[in-house]
Automatic annotation (TrEMBL):
UniProt KW Cell division keyword: no
Domain of life of the source: Bacteria
Organism per entry: Paenibacillus violae
Pfam families noted in UniProt: Acetyltransf_1
Coiled-coil stretches: none
Record's keyword terms, sorted: Acyltransferase, Transferase
Protein name listed in UniProt: GNAT family N-acetyltransferase
Domain N-acetyltransferase: 4-150
UniProt-listed PROSITE patterns: GNAT
InterPro entries for this protein: Acyl_CoA_acyltransferase (IPR016181), GNAT_dom (IPR000182), YpeA/RimI_acetyltransf (IPR050680)
UniProt key word Transmembrane helix: no
Length: 150
């Protein structure tokens, strides 16, 4: 059973999610509130992704975003694409409630597990995952190719 403060995302949460993203990484400011809103519409209507938020006093203070991860050589997993708790509320179990909600959703939906990437410098986050039974599997280099709008 999910904590009463954890619920699925609503489009109206876009401003709080934008602010959480800014606190997590100020370089994300180029992804405007309006773009966050547009992305929420796309994710909630056109994908199988799930986003859970933790709401307290009508404010979203954390979220976790899971996306189905399908490979031709492994069982289906859920990939955590975003996971942020407002720094002022960390250490209160909010992250645990969010990840437990995603884990339960994944189990109920028939996925075999959850995977995630975490930056090498996020040592506290690594300890959080390890305490929850996640195992370090490998170091990787991430590559990206962007297409500029003309």
């Amino acid at each position: 059973m999910r904590d009463k403060n954890v619920r699925e995302v609503r489009i109206s949460d876009y401003q709080d999610i934008y602010l959480l993203n800014q606190h997590f990484n100020p370089n994300l400011s180029v992804f405007t509130e309006e773009k966050v809103k547009e992305k929420l519409v796309t994710l909630t209507t056109k994908t199988k992704d799930v986003i859970f938020v933790y709401e307290q006093h009508n404010e979203v203070i954390g979220y976790i975003h899971g996306s189905p991860y399908e490979l031709l050589f492994a069982d289906s997993l859920v990939n955590i694409l975003g996971f942020v708790v407002n720094v002022a509320y960390r250490g209160q179990g909010i992250g645990s409630m969010l990840i437990e909600s995603l884990e339960q959703w994944a189990k109920d939906a028939g996925y075999s597990g959850i995977k995630l990437l975490s930056h090498p410098t996020r040592v506290q986050a690594h300890h959080f995952y390890e305490r929850r039974g996640y195992q370090f599997t490998k170091d990787q280099k991430n590559f990206i190719k962007t297409f500029r709008e003309n």
